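ligand=2-keto-3-deoxygluconate
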Amino acid sequence: MKITEADVVVTSPGRNFVTLRLTTEDGLTGLGDATLNGRELAVVAYLSEHVVPLLIGRDAGRIEDTWQYLYRGAYWRRGPVTMAAIAAVDTALWDIKAKAAGMPLYQLLGGASRTGALAYGHASGRDIPELLDSIRAHLEQGFRAIRVQTGIPGLGTVYGVASSAGDDGRYDYEPARRTALPTVETWDTRAYLRHVPTVFEAVRAEFGPDLPLLHDGHHRMTPIQAAKLGKSLEPYDLFWLEDATPGEDQTALRLIRQHTTTPLAIGEVFNSVHDYTVLLQERLIDYVRSAVTHAGGITALRKVLDLAGVYGIKSGMHGPTDISPVGMAAALHLDLAIHNFGIQEYMPHSLATLEVFRTSYGFKDGLLHPSDSPGLGVELDLDAAARFPYEAAYLPVSRLTDGTVHDW
Ligand code: KDG
Ligand code: MG
């Protein structure tokens, strides 16, 4: 079954998405998510100029060989752009193979290991009362695990905190402030470290000890600051503390681990198993945060997760709205199939996004299920996609109070 067409589709139903659509000689189509938030067009060029010409005429059934050809066969390996492009090809080929078999993809990955994937939602508030309302609203929507982010006294807008709910009652990351240049936010880590324990104290006082609570540090602490935060949050029994320190520095996690028993998660910006080797072999983390979209696809992420399983480390795949519904569906098939599943991040997409991407996955009683439709279970409406042209959008840049650029 040869690949006859490969189309790179850019659409922006409220935020930008890049999708690879492969078509085979017998008319099957497969989708892969290649969205790299804020650097979307770099992946479009990589795919269109350097990958699409290699795909036409290839056997769509040779998924592993195609992965190795695009990764090992190219001199320049790894990196977010390359690996998002390879991920899209890999995901689209799995979609085609599962459609050809007439099965939901999770069946080809070994079948279901559970009835559904426990999802966590994003509660946030500019202050504690607003946060508590947001947690209540998420519990009403059915979430059984909650990420907690708040504004910080003395600082303005803080990334990851909703400034207001959108028209459909949901909030998103940066698209509310779409601009050709990134906006700037002010950051003060000491103020943050003072405030966060008081937030978790209030949340536990209101919701009790059972509710799994998560928190994202967005790579903004030094190792010793992160160690201090992990220690100060121990009384509140977090499910995880995420992205405490900058992603490039695997040994930073060693220092944090020496000081705290708060579980640690990292990896949404990683793109290779080589970003994880020290972390896994030394058991420095508890959860692998990579998404299918950014880690080289289902083929590559499955291998990372199998290695993690050897060390008792679980999955916690990245699932914000800049992972497209195609990337989310791919995650859900993997979540259902692997043994060492931990939790799945889930930010529902906007109604406009769901007009472009017709999904079949479902969310019920806190669990996500990819559905039993053949393949990934997502279809792309090209006419709807064309109605939402690309618009530049960037994540904000953080500067300290003295103007110094700070880490992501
Ligand atoms: O593109 C960046 C976002 O996906 C990221 O900041 C969201 O940290 C995030 C999360 O945990 O979902
Ligand atoms: Mg994160």
